[in-house]
Amino acid sequence: MDFSNFNDTLLSFLQSSPTPFHATASMRSALLSHGFVELLEEDTWVIEEGGKYFVTRNESSLIAFTTPQLTMSQSGWRMIGAHTDSPCLKLKPNAQVDRFGYHQLGVEVYGGVLLHTWLDRDLSIAGRITLKTKAGDIVSRLVDFKEPIAVVPNLAIHLNRQANEGFSVNPQEEILPILCGAENEFDLHELLTSQLKKQYSELQVDSILDFELSLYDTQPAALVGLHKEYICSARLDNLLSCFVGLQALLESDQQRPSLLVCTDHEEIGSLSACGANGPFLDDVLRRLTPNPEQYVQAMQRSMLVSADNAHALHPNYAHKHDKNHAPAINKGAVIKVNANQRYATNSETASVYRDIAAEENYEVQCFVVRSDMACGSTIGPITSGEIGVPTIDIGLPTFGMHSIRELAGSRDAYGLYKVLARFTKRDKLITR
User: Fold this and answer.
1) Whole-model pTM above 0.90?
2) N or C end of the chain: which has fewer CB within 10 A?
3) Which secondary structure element, helix H or strand E, spans residue 304, and what is its range?
4) Is the pLDDT of residue 431 over 90?
5) Contact call for residues 285 and 89 (beta carbons, < 8 A)
6) DSSP 174-235
7) Which residues contact 315 (CB under 8 A, 6 or more apart)?
8) Which residues cross the membrane (predicted)?
């Protein structure tokens, strides 16, 4: 895939993936179109040599893999990991709020949201609805309103003269989106039923039982900057890595078993049935290598590249960085290092990545958080700790992480795709 086509496809993927459910559906569609076979966890699996497969859990996490040979204990895996979720505002179960002449939505903050960035944005709603059909079946369907139907207006500076000196947003009282005026009749379940009928004309809805819905910014993803060198979009953390990993897997030559794992709930700790701190990946790998001794052999001959966005040096806040570890946008992916194992990188996994990047003539940067600041973490240490696979944490330099709209480099994304595609074809890792 060339540079232009890559970024066009990336923008489409970002636009079609407003929630983890939709991101997983987008990846599922791409895999099916490239000949991958969908597996169901409740079925008995028949895995063939030279096969291409994928499986989802909770409709929000996905594992895809190739099996050029079935002796994984001898070859190991070339793994790429990312996460499908992003910080956002999620609707509460009893979300309808009517006050002071407006119909609003009660929301809960998911993850480390930069709350003030959600003010004065054109918002829509997407997610999963579980319902009962008139035939008596309980089914789930994804919905996406797409149109801007909600907004959280800011408070005028005349009523908050200290606004430019810094202010906090109360998530219980001050972040509730407005849908319409009270002069209009409004019932949330009726709205959701109407949307289901609009998207699924054949669906006979008896009643809505529950939902998992999020707000999102309707402004499209775009290439911006004087020379279009930046990607500006919601949910770059971490759909950017999901897309790069997916394209790398599709590019693999199937000489070595390769695997992509994209899990939900990273932004809140990954502890769930479909999160990195849950059993999903281990369940899949043990079905492919059920012999305990061979499983350990396979893991020790494998390597995981955990891809999650990295903090680029912000020119307006340079003091927030260690000056010797201050990544720049469009200067290459970032190897993340932390002595306290907030990242899983070690000297060996970093060396393998540096060597592969050099083969692609692709620059490599390094990030270490300032010693007087707390360090974030990723799925890398969690996955490595769960299955024992050697791991490196990398990421694409990003501005505004956890904002409703983030900024990364278009050349970085394409370069990482080329490096990870080569990684899936790598024969030897570390010689013992």
Assistant:
1) yes
2) C
3) strand 303-307
4) no
5) no
6) S-PPEEEETTS---HHHHHHHHHHHH-TT--EEEEEEEEEEEEE-SPPEEESTTS-EEEETT
7) none
8) none
